[in-house]
Every structure is written in C-alpha cells, then in structure tokens.
Write a structure and sequence with these properties.
rod-shaped, alpha+beta, Beta-Lactamase, 2 domains, 10 helices, 527 residues, 60% helix, seven-stranded antiparallel sheet, 12 strands, five-stranded antiparallel sheet
C-alpha cells in the first residue's frame, strides 16, 4: 500500500520506533527482573538450606542430650546399686556369718531393688544377677526349684518390674547365659554377658522381653559388680521404649509441623524409636531409610552428620548419644524432605513469580499507554508540521488551476517556511512572466494589425500601378512600384518580428505550464 500522507508516514515511522523501543525496554526489564528473581531465589535458598541444616543439627544435638540424660539417669542408678550391692555383700555376709542369720544379703538387695523401682515410675524394671556362689555362697540351699528371686541352680536373679497399669511384681531373670539371638539379632543374654566379657557397662539394643506375661519392647542398662577386678554379677534397670517413642513424636511435632521424621538408632543400627513408623521399633535401620548403610556406619563410629542425602535428597542430621562408660553410642536421626525444608523458598518463589507477572503486566500496560500517548502527541505534532505544507499544496493547486488571487501566509523560520517563501516568490515571478507574455502578445497583435493594413495598402498600390501602366503612365507606375516594394519589405520585417513575439509568448506560457504542473505534483505528494 502506497502512503500519500506525510503525517501518516511520520506517525507510522515514529510509532514503529516507539514500539520497538518500548518492547526493548520492557523486554530487558522483564529479563533483568527474571535474573534478579533467580538470583534472589538461589541465595535465599542457600540461606534457608544452611539455616535448616543448623536447625536440624541443633535440634538433633539437644534431643541427643535429653536422651543421654535420661539413659544416664538409669545408668547412674544401676551404677549406684552395683556399688551398694558390692559393699552390702561384704558387710552383710560377715554379719550373717557372725550372727548366723540367713538370707540377709538376698533380702537386703531384693528390698533395694523393689524400693528403687517404686520410687522411679519412669523405670520399667530393676534387677540383679550373680555368678554361681558369688553373692553369698549359698546357691545350693536354694537349688532345685525356681522361685521369683532365684533360678533352678539357686543363683540370685530377682527382676522387679512394672506393667503399663503400674502394677509392680517380681519374677526371676531368664536367658541371661544364652548366646542365642532375638529375631532382630540382639543377643538374648547380652545385658549380662557383655559386662562379664568386657568388664564395661552395657546399654543393650532394643529387644522384646516378657514382663508379667506380656511382651514389652525395652532396653536394659547394666553395670558390672566386681571385687578386686573379678566379675561377680550385674545390677541394672530397664527402660520402656515408649518413653523414647513419645520423645521422638514430640520432637517431630515441633519440627516443621510434624512433617519430618525423628528416629533413635542403636549402636548396631536398630530402630529404638521412630515418629514416622513406630511399628518398626526393633527392626534394622533399613526399614525406614534407603541410605541406611551410611547412617548405620556413622552411628557405629560415633560420627555426627548434617547434610543432604545423596540417595533420598532429604536433609538429615545425626547426633551421637554417648551412653555412660560404654563404647557403644546411639544416635538421634532427624530427616526432613527437601520440599518441606525449602517450603519458604518455594513460597517466596511463588510470591516473586506472582509479583513479577503483575509487574510485567504493569510494564506492558504502561509501555503501551506511553506509546499511545506519544503517538497522540506525535500525531498532533505531525499535524502542526504538515499544516503549512497543506496550505502550500492548496495554494499551488489554485495556482495550477490558474487562480492567482490567493496568497500563502506561512511564517516559519524552518525549512517549511523557506519552502513556502520560495513558492510565493515563484508564483509572483510566474505572475510577472504571464503578464509580460500577455503584454508581448498584445503588442504582437497590434503589429500584426498594422502589417495587415500595410499589406492592404501595398496591394492597392500594385493595383493602381498596373492601371497606370495600362494608361501609359510609366513614370508614375515606376514610382508607385518602388513604394509598393518598400511597403512589402516593411511588412515582411514586421511579420518576422510578430513571429518572434509569438515564440517568446509561447515559451513563457510553456514555463508557466511547467511551473503549474510541478506545483500540482507537489500538492499531490503533500496531500
């Protein structure tokens, strides 16, 4: 499509430039905003990750301290009972031998076990087990029938325990010499055999035990009773795993609204408690974690971890629980899915994306508004700029039509003003040229009239000369002939001048026509 309006051309060109500029600015602004958003998200994400790791590590360490304190309390009790039993064994045995009193040592130890359990409701049980003849040398007197404080061989093995209803009862310990293992791999007699084998305290991994006819999952803490380095027996306390399970749930509830997972893991990688899967208590760590091998190794080595699992992608913190004077630490394991840890980051990303979208719409809207406003201003500016051109075009069109009665009133100092002035001067010169052409045309007409009169006179003279010759008036005829020839020559010269005058007028008319044509073309271009 051919555009014939300068105003339209100016508007389209300016509009295209404005649109390109606005699009470039808005596009760069959106690109820059997107990069800034990505940078903020990345840095905030790193900060949140580091904060999450610190929080998990701190929480795991604090809970490890709580559990360690609770288990240490049991160990201190067992340790104290062991020392007391060692002293009572010596003194009571001497007194009984001197005064002939029977059962004094056994009764005293049994009473202590009962009182300790009664005064510590958090304990599941208290117990003591002795090597053959190590307590009072009187096992043979009790051999033959097991009772609730000794076995068939007469060894003193009382176990005071409390069921979930709070009822306290006594039963003899069993399987304390057994090397067999429970289904989860825990040695049945480990709580007795390990102190005897190593001379160290023991915190046994979780195992099932029959308490008042019902199976309970528990852990037991035992210390060796020794005399001059010789192992005599053990004193110990039992702890229900329910306590640790409730602790794990409580910690989990305080962690990201209960969306994490808190577990307590034994030295051999067994689950002591799990907030997410409480039914897995006593099972291997693999029951709740795909990266169990790495975690089990860290627990056994007493290492702490605060990282992101390469296997599951979860954020995890592992804090060691040191258990008394044993070299078999447990650990608290806290795991949180990355979507939960980075929920704030995702929320921030969503907010920034929404704000970015809104800002983008505003930028596009403002850009279009400014462009429309600029086009409106440009339209008015172009109209003001084209107006004198249109006046000049209209003036030229009138002149082209032969109307010289109008004037061009454009007073500007720019190129349009110069063009208008030149056009006015051109029309003035054209008017002068046309006037001169008309004057010469009139003069040529007058000369032609005079020439025609002279020719007529010459013809008349020739006619008279011929008549005179016929009458014989030769002299008169000769004179008349001379006059006629002079008149003819003058007429020829006059005709030549008239032709020249006509040619000059024609040239001026041609110039005027070309000027009018040029003005018409300019008029068509402007309009």
């Amino acid at each position: 499509m051919q555009l014939k309006s300068i105003q339209t051309k100016i508007l389209l060109l300016a509009g295209a430039c404005l649109l390109v500029t606005s699009a470039a600015l808005v596009g760069y602004s959106l690109y820059s905003a997107g990069k800034n958003q990505a940078l903020v998200s990345q840095r905030v994400g790193k900060l949140l990750e580091e904060e999450a790791k610190r929080n998990l590590a701190s929480l795991a360490a604090s809970q490890a301290a709580v559990i360690q304190s609770a288990l240490e309390d049991n160990l201190v009790t067992a340790r104290t009972m062991g020392k007391v039993f060692e002293v009572l064994r010596e003194k009571t045995a001497a007194t009984a031998s001197r005064e002939g009193i029977k059962n004094t040592v056994r009764d005293t130890l049994d009473t202590i076990l009962h009182e300790v359990l009664k005064n510590n409701p958090q304990y599941l049980g208290t117990y003591s087990a002795w090597e053959p003849g190590a307590l009072d040398g009187r096992d043979g007197e009790y051999a033959g029938a097991a009772k609730d404080d000794h076995d068939e061989t007469g060894r003193f093995v009382p176990y005071w325990n409390r069921d979930k209803a709070g009822k306290i009862a006594r039963q003899p310990l069993v399987e304390f010499e057994s090397q067999d293992r429970h289904p989860n791999g825990v040695r049945k007699g480990g709580w007795y055999l390990w102190p005897r084998e190593s001379g160290k305290e023991s915190v046994l991994d979780p195992f099932p035990y029959i308490v008042q006819g019902k199976q309970e999952w528990l852990t037991t803490l035992s210390v060796p009773v020794k005399k001059d380095g010789k192992f005599l027996g053990v004193a110990g306390t039992d702890l229900r795993l329910d306590f640790l399970q409730e602790l794990a749930k409580k910690v989990d509830a305080s962690l990201y609204g209960g969306k994490g997972d808190v577990a307590i893991v034994s030295h051999d990688g067994l689950i002591v408690a799990s907030s997410e899967k409480p039914e897995t208590v006593g099972q291997p760590l693999s029951a709740i974690s795909k990266d169990w091998e790495e975690l089990a190794k860290a627990v056994k080595e007493g290492k702490t971890l605060t990282d992101v699992s390469d296997v599951t992608g979860s954020y995890r913190a592992l804090a060691t629980i040191k258990l008394g004077r044993t070299d078999r630490p447990w650990a608290v394991l806290i795991r949180v899915h990355p979507d939960i840890v980075l929920a704030e980051r995702h929320a921030l990303d969503a907010d920034m994306a929404a704000q970015g979208k809104e800002a983008a719409l505003w930028q596009v809207g403002v850009g279009l508004g400014i462009t429309a406003l600029a086009l409106g201003v440009m339209w008015l500016f172009a109209a003001g700029m084209v107006r004198p051109l249109r006046l000049a075009a209209g003036f030229a069109e009138k002149v082209a039509q032969g109307d010289f009665s109008h004037t061009l009133d454009v007073k500007q100092a720019d190129e349009i003003g110069v063009l208008a002035g030149a056009l006015s001067r051109m029309v003035d010169n054209l008017k002068k040229m046309i006037g001169q052409a008309e004057d010469k045309s009139r003069e040529a007409a007058a000369e032609a009239e005079r020439a025609r009169a002279a020719v007529a006179e010459a013809e008349q003279a020739r006619t008279e000369a011929a008549a005179a010759q016929r009458r014989g008036a030769l002299d008169a005829a000769a004179r008349i002939e001379d006059v006629a020839q002079a008149v003819a020559a003058a007429s020829s010269d006059l005709a030549s001048q008239i032709d020249q005058s006509k040619q000059g007028a024609d040239i001026q008319r041609q110039h005027a026509g070309e000027t009018a044509t040029a003005m018409e073309e300019m008029n068509a271009t402007v309009l």
